[in-house]
Amino acid sequence: MTKIRIAPSLLSADFSRLGEELRDIERGGADLVHLDVMDGHFVPNLTIGPAVVKACRAQTSLPFDCHLMIAHPQQYIGAFLDAGANMISVHQETEPHLQRALRLIRDGGAKAGIAINPATAAESLSAAIEFCDFVLVMTVNPGFGGQKFIEPVVGKIRLIAQMIRERGVAVDIEVDGGIDRSTTPLVVAAGATILVAGSAVFGQPDRKMAMEAIRNSVSVRV
């Protein structure tokens, strides 16, 4: 059975009770927490910044996976490291000096990730994949939660997994967007090991059962 890690996306949580929400998913078996950072410029939405990440850090021992959907991410990497991020991903589409940004993250003690949009080709990772710890593949266009899974991206996940095998690098594939019991088997079979799930976890009354259902969909169908 393929081992996967589930990262509930805080974007789908109740923001009026974030501490309770974080403790609930930790009790329910989450492996890490996905924090969507949006600037209203690179993506058409505004969410959270380092201050909220720092406040949340005191509420759970789960690793924090900060996804920077922002312009000029290098200016903010230090702030998110200081706030308690354990993983930070920057978008290839917005960072012209990608290797430098990844080095800043790693030098700060966190795992470094390259995030790519659905329309960005897998081949574009060729020059930088050896500088990262994970690739975050968007299976929806970033900016909002609750969108429909873009199934043609599954083929891109396969290509990235092949590139990782051929290079012999220790790089995980994370997927974000429309992940639930029906889409999980598709992305895991393609090579994904970290699954970001928003409404499929936080939109359910029993978060533990919701995460178990996602895990079981792999053991049954992959």
Molecular structure report:
The chain is of the alpha/beta class and 222 residues long. α1 packs across α8, α2 (50-57) runs parallel beside α3 and α5 packs parallel to α6. An eight-stranded parallel sheet has the order 1-8-7-6-5-4-3-2. The longest helix has 15 residues, at 153-167. β4 (87-91), α4 and β5 (111-116) form a beta-alpha-beta unit. The chain has eight helices and eight strands, in the order βαβαβαβαββαβαβαα.
How helical, in percent, are the residues?
25-40%
> Can you tell me the CATH architecture?
Alpha-Beta Barrel
Average pLDDT: 94
Amino-to-carboxy terminus distance: 8 Å
What is the third-level CATH name, the topology? Answer: TIM Barrel
Structural class: alpha/beta
Major sheet description? 8 strands, parallel
Strand content: 15-25%
- The low-confidence parts are none
Integer-rounded radius of gyration: 16 Å
User: What strand line-up does the widest sheet have?
Assistant: 1-8-7-6-5-4-3-2
CATH superfamily: Aldolase class I
Assembly status = single chain
Shape: globular
Q: Can you tell me the number of structural domains?
A: 1
Order of helices and strands: EHEHEHEHEEHEHEHH
